[in-house]
Amino acid sequence: MSDANGLSAALRTLSGGEFVDLTHTLEEGVPTVPTHARYGHTLYESYEKGDAACHYRLTLGEHTGTHMDAPLHFIAEGDAHYDISSIPLDRLVGRAASIDVTDIGPNETVPADRIREWESEHGALEAGDRVLFRFGWDRHWGTGGDGSYYIEEWPGLSAEAAAYLTDADIAVVGCDTAAIDVSGDEGFPAHYELLGNEVYIVENLTNLGALPPFSLLVTLPLKIGDGSGSPIRAVAVVE
User: Mean pLDDT over residues 120-137, rounded?
Assistant: First the structure.
């Protein structure tokens, strides 16, 4: 598909499509990987105190809530697209494939064959696509103790599946779990494979069950200089 045809298709989808929010609400007590900063929302000005305006101070990490990983998150050295502020914009908006892997159990991984099976049914992935894995893990999301299991025993992507996606020149890989690597795997093979090949990662998605096999995905991070990642507002547009 030419760039012009791709743009025309995207504009038609945007103008006549249904918007699906794939982003968790940020609020105090949301699940956070133990090594990452907690989210805080502190009132600074309020009408009740007699102030003319209302505003809050936010305290959060680059990987709080629904967020994107840049190569800097795991790769010690990189090129011009290494940090979150330098990711090309055309990598952040485009066609997304949604793959249902809700049968993958806790602490299990998705093999490459599952991607091949999906392609045989729905069509081949194309260079520059985004691929979203729906584990259904967002059902464990919650605040405080209600979300404690979310950061335990989550499933993930196998090293061979990650390599399959980099070979296919995928732009972004997303999941509705705390991380793309399975819980407890401190070798982080999927992170190293994807980020090392400039495939950006989106984690802590939600509502992936509302998506058809293909949709238009928008994942825009904050433009943080030397950022290893950023919270995002992830939105899909469905024809």
Answer: 98
